[in-house]
Automatic annotation (TrEMBL):
Name assigned to this protein: Large ribosomal subunit protein uL22
Alphabetical keyword list: Ribonucleoprotein, Ribosomal protein, RNA-binding, rRNA-binding
One GO BP annotation of this record: translation
Gene Ontology terms: cellular component: cytosolic large ribosomal subunit
Organism: Phreatobacter cathodiphilus
C-alpha cells in the first residue's frame, strides 16, 4: 500500500537528464546551452567536444546521459534524437570574503547552476 506512481512528465518520445550544482554562473552556462539547443545530438556532441568553454565538458556529460536514458530506459533511436530543450536554473551562491587594502573587505560570489537537457526523437532529423 504505497502511494500511486507519479505519471511521466515527458511524452513517450522524450528523455531527459539533469546536472545539478555545476560550479559556473547561470549566465555563462546558458551560452553553452544555447550552442546545442535544437541541434541533432551528434552535431551537439561535436560542438561541445571542440568548444573552448570550461563548462562544456560537464554539459557534454549531461547530454550523453540524456542520450543513454533515451536509449536504455525509453527505447528511442539514438540516430533520430535532437536536443529539444536545454535550460539553465540558478542554484545557490557561495559568499566569500577577500581582504583588500586599508582594512577593507570585498565580497566574492561563487555561483552554482543546474542544467536540464531534454532530447526528443524526431523522424525527420536526417532530412
Amino acid at each position: 500500500m504505497g502511494k500511486p506512481a507519479t505519471p511521466r512528465a515527458l511524452s513517450d518520445n522524450e528523455a531527459k537528464a539533469v546536472a545539478r550544482m555545476l560550479r559556473v554562473s547561470p549566465r555563462k552556462l546558458n551560452l553553452v546551452a544555447a550552442l546545442i539547443r535544437g541541434k541533432p545530438v551528434d552535431t551537439a556532441l561535436a560542438d561541445l567536444e571542440f568548444s573552448r568553454k570550461r563548462i562544456a565538458n560537464d554539459v557534454k556529460k549531461c547530454l550523453e546521459s540524456a542520450i543513454a536514458n533515451a536509449e536504455n530506459n525509453h527505447d528511442l533511436d539514438v540516430d533520430d534524437l535532437i536536443v529539444a530543450e536545454a535550460h539553465v536554473g540558478k542554484a545557490f551562491v557561495l559568499k566569500r570574503f577577500h581582504a583588500r587594502a586599508r582594512g577593507r573587505g570585498a565580497r566574492i560570489e561563487k555561483p552554482f547552476s543546474h542544467l536540464t537537457i531534454v532530447v526528443r526523437q524526431v523522424e525527420e532529423a536526417k532530412a
